[in-house]
Design brief:
The protein is an alpha+beta fold and 206 residues long. The chain is built from four helices and eleven strands. Strands 3, 4, 5, 6, 7, 8, 9, 10 and 11 form a nine-stranded mixed beta sheet that branches. The chain has a two-stranded antiparallel sheet with strand order 1-2. The longest helix is centred in the last third of the chain and has 14 residues.
Length: 206
């Protein structure tokens, strides 16, 4: 299968060409991604859904992350990333239902991968029952939610741990309920600047 081709940019987000995904991560080239955070409202409380990354992932397995995210291909625009939501978590979304939060640029380095992203970041407001999520097992191992106010407190530094509830899929395909307390070390290591931009944008749009 042909490798994904992505647009490449300089640090000022000026397009400079197209490259294979593996080359982009190996060389640390700037590229575009799609991030969508799903928020629901229940009993006058806002909740944020998080995905649990699959244990099969090479980078950051088993950690909590953006509800749905992925790379934008060379021919795609930002909102075309809605395909990631259906592919990863089985949630079908119309492009005009997304609320644009901004383009957040940041770098992540895990030793093997140097990831430089211009992340087109969106909010999607919808109450979704856990049973309605259909997970792409090689990408996502489960879905949990947490009170949005607690998520803010975690990244502001006023709370060390927060409560998450949801499910994860066992090796034999069974959905197991989970309820646990998690800290920052349970999340994919996006830089604190990303979380600061995210929390501010969410507050402005909710």
């Amino acid at each position: 299968m042909e490798e994904e081709q992505l647009k490449v940019f300089d640090e000022n987000r000026t397009p400079i060409g197209i490259a294979a995904r593996s080359e982009i991560h190996k060389k640390g080239l700037w590229h575009e991604t799609f991030h969508c955070w799903i928020v629901s409202e229940q009993d006058e409380q806002l909740y944020l859904y998080l995905q649990i990354r699959s244990p099969l992932k090479k980078d950051y397995p088993n950690l909590l992350d953006i509800t749905a995210a992925g790379h934008l291909l060379a021919h795609e625009e930002a909102k075309d990333g809605v395909r990631e939501m259906e592919e990863e978590i089985g949630i079908s979304v119309e492009r005009d239902e997304l609320i644009f939060l901004g383009v957040f640029h940041y770098e992540m380095n895990n030793g093997d991968i140097l990831d430089k992203e211009f992340a087109h970041t969106f909010l999607y407001k919808r109450n979704i029952d856990f049973k309605d999520f259909k997970l792409q097992e090689e990408e996502v191992a489960g879905i949990v939610k947490t009170r949005l106010a607690d998520f803010y407190a975690l990244w502001k530094g006023t709370s060390q741990v927060i409560e998450v509830n949801g499910f994860e899929v066992s090796e034999n395909g069974e959905r197991l309920k989970i309820h646990r307390m998690v800290g920052r070390d349970s999340f994919a290591p996006h830089p604190i600047s990303y979380y600061n931009q995210l929390t501010q944008a969410l507050k402005e749009n909710l």
